[in-house]
Amino acid sequence: MSPSPDGPGETRSAILESAPARRGPWHRELTAGQWRVLTAAFLGWIFNGYEAYVLFLAMAPALRQLLAPAQLPDLSSYAGILVAATLVGWATGGVLGGIAADYFGRKRTMMATILTYAVFTGLTGFSQSWVQLAVFRFLTGLGLGGEWATGATLIAETWPSRARAKGQGIMQSAFGWGSLLAAAAWYFLQPVGGPAAWRVLFFLGIIPAFLVLYIRKNVDESEKWLAKQAERRRLKSQRRSGTALSREEAFVADFTVVALFRNPPLRRLVLLAIVMSVASSVGYWAVATWIPAYTESVAKAAGESNPGRWAAIAGLSHTVGAIIGYLAGGFLADVIGRRALLACFFGGGLLTIPLLYVWTHSLPAVVFAAGLNGMLTLGQFVWMAIYPPELFPTAVRATAVSLIFNSARYISFLGPLFAGVLITRLGGYSQTAMLFSVVYLFALMVVPFLPETKGQPLPA
Prior knowledge:
Layout: H1 12-18, H2 32-66, H3 75-104, H4 106-124, H5 130-158, H6 161-193, H7 197-203, H8 211-218, H9 223-240, H10 247-253, H11 256-262, H12 264-285, H13 291-301, H14 307-336, H15 338-359, H16 363-378, H17 382-386, H18 397-406, H19 409-412, H20 414-426, H21 429-436, H22 439-446
């Protein structure tokens, strides 16, 4: 290990990580610099949530303008292409962003990814065809996927053990707040913006580009990464000079993806965590995204005069429930442990799907069930911020975290496409939702094979 300013082989963050837990409220042991890290990650993810949600709000009016009259009957198919393009871009950018963060730093990569999604979201507003719209959404997705892993890794490496999960929960909640921000912007723009309202919604997405200036000035790079990067450079230099490296040294010097999958214990952890990630992603994209449409169908069956209003209320309930799940998950992880939290989320998701789609029939009950579903299906994504960073060493941490979080989207983007077909074939939302809910069973079967990391320092 390379020497550091704080003493031989140990950084200041490492000393804090290994020090005995302090007494008193967890937040009092945090420094101003650690709060700035959370602020940057939170704002980066809140705008990420905004950028992702504006697509669902704006794609229908955008496609009505951009498609030829003969293409309008297939509008839903083009909408599916836009969602798929965003998710594939998200997955690709996420994997590449995680690798970049392990080589170029957490801070630099965060700035680059935020700038990427902000610029291409703004450019989306200039689209003159549905093809341009799809291309810009793919390019936006590249930035969306890369930003999350850098923020989660930076918090994990700079916050003390007692506060780490709570910080990740707060950061993860930003996605829900971003969705609410997008909904509020659309609420005010739609009545006054006319045919160009959807374009303005995308133009507003350029705002997070200014966040890069804040990060550049106020956020420090992870000391853990700086020390590991110095070690990586030294070992690579030794390898080029012909010096034989030990297995541990080769792990640091190798390309991160190769090092990760060449190590059997780490490869096993990655693959098990990806199974859970696929379950979380498919459970959301193939089931939860249909909640507004399902609620609207229930309202129509009940003879409501404004079924769209009930759909909006259910969507709002689902988002608020998700925010509660994000925040609660960060605190519960330190009370009941990581594995118990995973079991609660996956088991809860399994139960709330029939509660929402089968067992409830009145509209108020559906809205309430949508909130519970949001807490336990969308809210469960918080485990990806809390748990994977605690499983992997610094040299490959961002790569592993991004693979777990983002590679699942290469599979989950198929969820809405297949779900749309199955809803028609099986005769309704309920049967399709119950079929896809089986993914949570696979996640539950994985949990017993994973280690508990509650109260443990990060792997070096």
